[in-house]
Design a protein that fits this description.
- With 337 residues, this protein is an all-alpha fold.
- It folds into 2 domains: 97 residues, no CATH class; 194 residues, Alpha Horseshoe (Serine Threonine Protein Phosphatase 5, Tetratricopeptide repeat).
- The protein has 18 helices and no strands.
- α4 runs parallel beside α6 and α9 runs antiparallel to α10.
- It is elongated and about 75 Å long.
- It starts with a helix and ends with a helix.
Length: 337
């Protein structure tokens, strides 16, 4: 598929060079387009391995001839071509605000050189130019995306899930190679009870970093929230395989295994704690959603650093856990008032 794309790019380059006229302005515009396509696809039209025997213009003419009869007997659907202003607005929306003025100056320069004189070439030239600009500002854009990610983390800690989601969306728009951005957005989706979206984002994170234990753990939590305990166990197990000393991952795996074995899906992870005398009523609390909050997870992680607590959870010794004042206070915080 990649070779075919390069062959198509070379065919377009050959067509553009054949279309060069004696008019200096038109020639310069075409040369700008040629250079952009070369840069974006990394091709050279002189490379014989990428040249095809039939010119692009001939292929196009044959296509039109073969489809003439069909087009005259069927209803014609007209596709509205976007104006230059609409295309520019879309391109501007995909550039960080900090670099937008610089990008606009870049666009003005190539426009002055006649790059947009041919209406049919505006979109491909603009896309190629945008890609070239992004590549030239790669490090700056990554730094901006990281800053936005941190802002998203802060919003999520403050309970502003909508704001956090917007930040992670923007961070991914600017740098979709970062696994952490997808994992964090997945955690936000889980907080919003959008578990399928959370699973999808965790998978995207794992594609970018197959050794990302936290992504597997978050995916396991989303599967557990959907009651898909076998899938949750598989995800948790992979998290443990990556980080065998992570007590949180091991506790999550153990809990999922017990739910799958005992069929306690309807308990929502509380094991009936809502009916224990002297305890707050926790039966209506969405524990899975609650644990998606980084602040709550940090509190739970601190408890898990206590070997006695970890052992109690591992053995299912709920009684010992309830004797711990810190656990009791935390549970009362989230009980119904």
């Amino acid at each position: 598929m990649a070779d075919n794309n390069k062959k198509l790019a070379v065919s377009i380059l050959q067509f553009l060079k054949e279309s060069t006229t004696n008019d200096s302005d038109s020639a310069e515009s075409i040369q700008v387009a040629v250079e952009c396509i070369r840069d974006v696809f990394g091709v050279d039209e002189k490379d014989t391995s990428l040249q095809v025997s039939t010119p692009l213009s001939t292929i196009f003419e044959n296509y039109l001839n073969n489809n003439t009869s069909a087009s005259t007997t069927s209803t014609t659907t007209t596709t509205t071509k976007k104006s230059k202003e609409e295309l520019l607005e879309k391109a501007y929306s995909e550039i960080p605000a900090e670099l937008l003025d610089s990008f606009k100056q870049f666009i003005n320069i190539i426009e002055q050189k006649g790059a947009f004189n041919n209406p049919d070439q505006i979109e491909p030239v603009l896309n190629a130019s945008k890609q070239k600009f992004i590549e030239s500002k790669k490090n700056e854009i990554k730094a901006i995306a990281e800053k936005i990610k941190v802002e998203g983390n802060n919003k999520l800690n403050e309970g502003d899930t909508k704001g956090a989601l917007e930040c992670y969306n923007k961070a991914i728009l600017y740098d979709d190679s970062n696994a952490i951005y997808f994992a964090n957005r997945g955690a936000t989706y889980a907080t919003l009870k959008m578990y399928n979206e959370a699973i999808s984002d965790c998978k995207e994170a794992i594609k970018r970093n197959p050794k990302y234990g936290k992504a597997y753990n978050r995916m396991g939590s989303a599967y557990a929230s959907l009651g898909s305990y076998e899938e949750a166990i598989d995800a948790y197990q992979k998290a443990v395989d990556i980080e065998p000393n992570n007590e949180t991952f091991k506790a999550s795996l153990s809990a999922a295994q017990k739910f799958a074995q005992n069929g306690e899906e309807e308990d929502n992870g509380m094991g009936g704690l809502g009916n224990i005398p002297g305890m707050p009523d926790l039966s209506g609390i969405d524990i899975n959603g609650l644990m998606s909050n980084p602040m709550i997870r940090n509190m739970a992680n601190q408890f898990m650093q206590n070997p006695q607590m970890a052992e109690s959870l591992k053995n299912g010794d709920i009684g010992s856990m309830l004797n711990n004042p810190e656990v009791l206070n935390m549970m009362k915080m989230f009980g119904k008032k």
